[in-house]
Amino acid sequence: MWRRILAVMTLAVLAAFTSPACGATTVTHPFIGITHYERFETSPRELAIHVIEIDLNAPGISFVTTPSNGAKPGDTTRQRTSDFVQQTGAQIAINGTFYASAGSGVGPGDGTEYYADLTYFAYSAGVGVSTWSGTGDPDERGINVDQNNNATFIRPFAINQANYQTRPTGASLYNGIGTYDGILINGVITATDTNLHPRTAMGLTDDKSKLFLMTVDGRQPGWSMGMTTIEMAQMLQNDYGCSDAINLDGGGSTTMAFADPTVRVVNRPSDGSERLHGNNFGVLALPTPPPDNGDYNNDGTIDAADYVVWRKGLGTAFTQTDFDVWRANFGQTAGSGSGASADTPVPEPASALLLMLGAAFGICSRRRVASPVPSAR
């Protein structure tokens, strides 16, 4: 029996040393109502993908988009996604729609700022920023979220008119973003681009309860080669239940940024650094409270790895009371206990498993030594 225990724990140790690489998906819940899927695929090629699932009914969820720059040239002042997160207080943001340069001017602190002419529809906090293109493209679409988080998949009222009139006519325009490229419309994949590029997309479920933000890295051999818009539409439909989706500005523009709480870019832009975008789309959300069951890394299992997360968050995210909850569910691990100092070295998950393996081996060995030897007959 003890050999089976050791075999199982050895496999667990080996798994702990395996890096989260190809073919793996990591699921986290960084904020209330937010699920983050970080995917690494090897088929049909190397792909690094980030998908954000937003529960539109969750408390504290709201949205923000780049506003008009007023009397300055163009529609907006261009901005990196991470700077947009920093400025607006958003927790998550992606780059927005396509644009053309509208020149530059003197910005704050006598610096240079750059302006954008947005090519497609944009609305920010109830104010129009850019009209529909009026080019007659039948797949021109957008996503609008009103003040009450009602999300709508929208399109121009008349595809040959460059104005803000929108279908469905009852949509309350508030925070919206549009594009020429509706890649999934009413459950039908309408995407046609078969080229591989970095991609940014948004999707919406049929019941309008969940909004998805998606980025796919590309043009980086050994990391991620990019997707076609057809593949992106298929993934949003088949894996995440979207009935509608739009393709936004991709290529070197593809960016997703977090503030959790430090502002950081979570994907790898293909230029090697962030671009200045015509607009950005951001999500504001409340931080996830510590779990009340001891599962501090939110992986569905209460184990030694949760102790590591608790220790790293002691004094910021977690308290001694949180540890007591974990201990009641799992038990004590090396170096832990009531009143333990936050400066105590943090064992890595693999180290914790090795300690457990050693302890199990010692226990089993002692049991074997203590077993009575049957007398010879």
Task: Please render the helix and strand layout as text.
Layout: H1 2-17, E1 24-31, E2 34-41, E3 47-55, E4 62-65, E5 76-77, H2 81-88, E6 92-95, E7 99-106, E8 112-118, E9 122-124, E10 127-130, E11 141-145, E12 151-156, E13 166-167, E14 175-179, E15 182-185, E16 188-189, E17 199-205, E18 210-216, H3 229-238, E19 242-247, E20 256-259, E21 263-265, E22 280-284, H4 304-313, H5 320-329, H6 349-370
| Strand fraction | 25-35%
What is the N-to-C succession of helices and strands? HEEEEEHEEEEEEEEEEEEEHEEEEHHH
What does the main sheet amount to?
8 strands, antiparallel
What is the first-to-last residue Cα distance? Answer: 27 Å
Number of strands: 22
Strands across the major sheet, in which order?
1-2-3-18-17-19-15-16
Shape verdict: globular
Rg of Cα set: 25 Å
**Could you estimate the helical fraction of the residues in percent?**
10-25%
Count of helices? Answer: 6
Backbone structural class: alpha+beta
Q: Which segments are poorly predicted (pLDDT under 50) over 5 or more consecutive residues?
A: 5-22, 333-377
Mean pLDDT: 85
